[in-house]
Amino acid sequence: MPRGGTRKQRDDGPERRCIVTGESGPRTGLIRFVLGPDGAPVPDLAERLPGRGMWLSATRDAAEQAIKKRAFSRAARAPVETPGDLPDMLERLLAERAVQTVALARKAGLAVAGFEKVKARLQQGGVGALMQAGDGSEPQRAKLRPMAGEAPIIDVLTADELGLAVGRASVIHAALDSGGAADRALRESLRLSGFRAGPDAAGGAANDQTFSPDDPVRH
């Protein structure tokens, strides 16, 4: 659930059009696809693969509709076999990518984990993002939220996923320093939230920097 964090997303460059909804918007809430050698749609989460890009809103509903409406075939103007497990596959890939962004931040010394360390870091100020496991204790999570101030709160990852990112069995709290690491974590969490928080999560949360796997997105 969005709690605090009113900072807007930075300009994401030229807008892209979703092949399912037909709506245009910044890349922040979209996933790029290209056709692979076998003619199947390949998610290009890093947006680096060669080929003509096809863009899909980062929501479970859009992925399901892409299968039903054969949206990739229409966009490519050629027969395209879309995998039936596309929504689950995208959730898995986006979760892995979100975990990787936090892991890289930790290795670079730009992240701390654990209640006391995060509390101390929040007291210093200038935090880029507060991360909390979506399946963690609500009373425990609530203790740190007021200290986050204007920093975005990300709670779309589970305790196990956040623990994997920082090299522990399970983690409820982490904090990222301001800068590129936090920005990347925000974008990946935004896209993942579309598969864990309902069909409209990614679009609805585009201008809100807090994401949760179990609560509706508040505009």
In short:
The protein has 219 residues and is an alpha+beta fold.
Describe this structure in words.
The chain is of the alpha+beta class and 219 residues long. It is built from eight helices and nine strands. It has helices spanning 60-68, 71-76, 86-107, 115-124, 138-144, 159-166, 180-196, 201-204, and strands at 16-17, 24-25, 30-35, 41-43, 54-57, 111-113, 127-132, 153-154, 173-177. The protein has a four-stranded mixed beta sheet, sandwiched between helices. Strand 3 (30-35) and strand 4 (41-43) form a beta hairpin.
Q: Which CATH top level class of the largest domain fits?
A: Alpha Beta
Please trace the helix and strand order, writing H or E for each element: EEEEEHHHEHEHEHEHH
Coarse shape:
elongated
The residue fraction in helices comes out at 25-40%
Q: Quote the CATH topology of the largest domain.
A: 60s Ribosomal Protein L30, Chain: A
The averaged pLDDT comes out at: 86
Q: Helix/strand/pairing class, anyone?
A: alpha+beta
Number of E-type strands: 9
Write the layout of secondary structure elements.
Layout: E1 16-17, E2 24-25, E3 30-35, E4 41-43, E5 54-57, H1 60-68, H2 71-76, H3 86-107, E6 111-113, H4 115-124, E7 127-132, H5 138-144, E8 153-154, H6 159-166, E9 173-177, H7 180-196, H8 201-204
Parallel strand pairs: 7-8
Antiparallel strand pairs: 1-2, 3-4, 3-5, 6-9, 7-9
Descriptive labels:
219 residues; Hypothetical Cytosolic Protein, Chain: A; four-stranded mixed β-sheet; 9 strands; elongated; disordered N terminus; disordered C terminus
